[in-house]
Write a structure and sequence with these properties.
Mean pLDDT: 79
Number of strands: 4
Strand order of the largest sheet: 1-2
Shape: globular
Distance between the termini: 42 Å
Structural class: mainly alpha
């Protein structure tokens, strides 16, 4: 192993140790009603960035927002989250509601997969023609619902490819053009999007349809908070971390509302309100709201 790689592994091991040892009171606001261990990962992110930029963690923690500015890559974040304790426990209450929700997920996603199989083959062929050398499907590691012990559950989420190959490698060059706030990254005229078909499937969220496979196997649900990237989770404070107490969804309050036009704080508020008021009737209303947003294409890019 090279010296640079050894040093990097050492840093990751130290960061993982810091997650357990760094006091939660430095994690900032938003840990209320969740115990004294909240925000450990967010606090770690603040500590690392403060060391890099010469700022104090406590100064960052006093900012009234649901994230802590940091600059982890997804690869670094994955290594940390694999051995990290979130300080939060998943919501495993309401067994009847969760049973009905899971049963509906299996039936609805299975029927949708069968119904959309032929159109998906056609779309896959179009994507391959428009973006030679790239497969029609694209996957990313995302954060799922926390495990019972509060550790992070990571899974591979699938999409139809809407961007050119190596789009992730181009991300660093586009950071200065980010039009979203907090951990989110959004550009209305993203140069990485495949012309024509890429813009269309993103506008109508057709690129998200392969996530029905994630729903069918139980990694996601039809309605819930959108699954976050590992690098985004590293910036969460205790309040935003509550998004991970339930399964992530294909659609939800955010998608049925402002979608990409919303702020990160608006997304957190919408998701936490959903978690507090979730019911099977509410889920059905959000399914229709998400379908309506997909059809009109407003707020998506």
């Amino acid at each position: 192993m090279s010296e640079s790689m050894s040093a990097r592994v050492g840093v990751l091991e130290e960061m993982a140790e810091d997650i357990r040892d760094f006091p939660a009171e430095n994690a900032g606001g938003g840990a209320h009603a969740l115990g004294n261990d909240n925000g450990r990962v967010g606090a770690l992110g603040a500590r690392r960035c403060a060391m890099r930029r010469g700022a104090a963690v406590q100064d960052r923690a006093q900012e009234r927002k649901s994230w802590i500015d940091c600059d982890y890559t997804d690869a670094e974040a994955i290594e940390v989250l694999r051995c990290a304790d979130s300080g939060v426990r998943p919501d495993l209450s309401r067994h009847g509601y969760r049973f009905a929700k899971r049963a509906f997920d299996i039936v609805a996603s299975g029927a949708a997969i069968a119904l959309l199989l032929a159109p998906s083959v056609v779309l896959s062929a179009i994507i391959c023609i428009k973006s030679p050398g790239a497969g029609p499907l694209y996957s990313q590691v995302r954060a799922g619902r926390l495990r019972k012990d509060g550790s992070f559950r990571l899974f591979r989420m699938w999409k139809f490819r809407s961007m050119v190959p190596h789009a992730d490698e181009m991300l660093a060059e586009l950071r200065d053009r980010n039009e979203a706030d907090g951990p989110l990254f959004k550009i209305k005229d993203d140069p990485r999007i495949i012309p024509g078909v890429g813009h269309f499937i993103r506008k109508h969220s057709i690129d998200e349809l392969p996530q029905l496979l994630n729903v069918f196997v139980g990694q996601m649900t039809l309605i819930g908070p959108r699954p976050a990237l590992p690098s985004e989770v590293m910036q969460y404070d205790g309040r935003a971390m509550r998004r991970l107490t339930v399964k992530p969804g294909c659609g939800g309050a955010w998608q049925a509302g402002e979608r990409s036009d919303s702020t990160f704080e608006g997304m957190v508020v919408a998701d936490l309100d959903y978690i507090e008021a979730s019911s099977f009737k509410h889920d059905l209303a959000l399914i229709f709201g998400t379908l309506r947003s997909m059809l009109d294409g407003k707020g998506a890019y």
